[in-house]
Each structure stands twice: as C-alpha cells, then as structure tokens.
TrEMBL record:
Source organism superkingdom: Bacteria
Protein name: DUF1292 domain-containing protein
InterPro entries to which the protein is assigned, alphabetical: UPF0473
Native organism taxonomy: Bacteria, Bacillati, Bacillota, Bacilli, Bacillales
One Pfam family hit: DUF1292
C-alpha cells in the first residue's frame, strides 16, 4: 500500500457485504498483509485503475492501484507519484459523484 491508503474510496457503495471477486494479498508499509477485494475499476488518461477494499474491514477506506499489463498478465501497482495520485483521486471522485447522482 502507498502512503495514500487513508483516502476514502468515496464510491458511495455499501461495502458491508460479501464480494465474489478474487482476493489480492497486499502488504502495507508496516509489513502487514491484508486480504483485499477489487470493488471497482475505471480508466483515467488511457490507464486502468482499481479500487480495493480490505476484505476483513469492509468499512475501511478504499485503496486505488494502477493496473499494468505485461505479456497478457495484469498486475496492481502502487501509485507513488503525488501528481498522478491527485489526478486519479479527482477523476475517481467525479465518477463516484456521477454514479451517486444517477442512483438518486
């Protein structure tokens, strides 16, 4: 996880339910492993991103990772660049607000 792991995913979804998605093991900066589930994907500037939630703490903040592909394999990468992080969070928050407005 990056230093940005305290950001609220802001998606407005009720994350207090079971997920059928794959489980990802993510090690935080303290070396603690967390079981994470992917709850949302989106694209920003022709780059794919994923929002993951801690499977054992579904009310915790979501974490955004960049999805990178190499030789038909996809993997999650922490966003270390503050400029990219701020841009992606802004885009994600806009998408979440649009989705919330559409459900109202």
């Amino acid at each position: 996880m990056t230093d940005h792991n305290n950001q609220d995913c802001g998606c407005g979804h009720d994350h207090n339910h079971e997920h059928d998605e794959d489980i990802f093991l993510v090690t935080d900066t303290d070396g603690v492993e967390h079981e994470m589930v992917m709850v949302y994907t989106f694209e920003a500037d022709n780059q794919a991103y994923a929002v993951l939630l801690d499977r054992n703490a579904p009310d915790s903040d979501g974490v955004i990772f960049r999805i990178e592909e190499e030789n038909d394999d996809a993997y999650l990468v922490s966003i270390e660049d503050d400029e990219e992080w701020n841009r992606v969070v802004t885009i994600y928050n806009e998408l979440a607000m649009e989705e919330a407005d559409g459900q109202a």
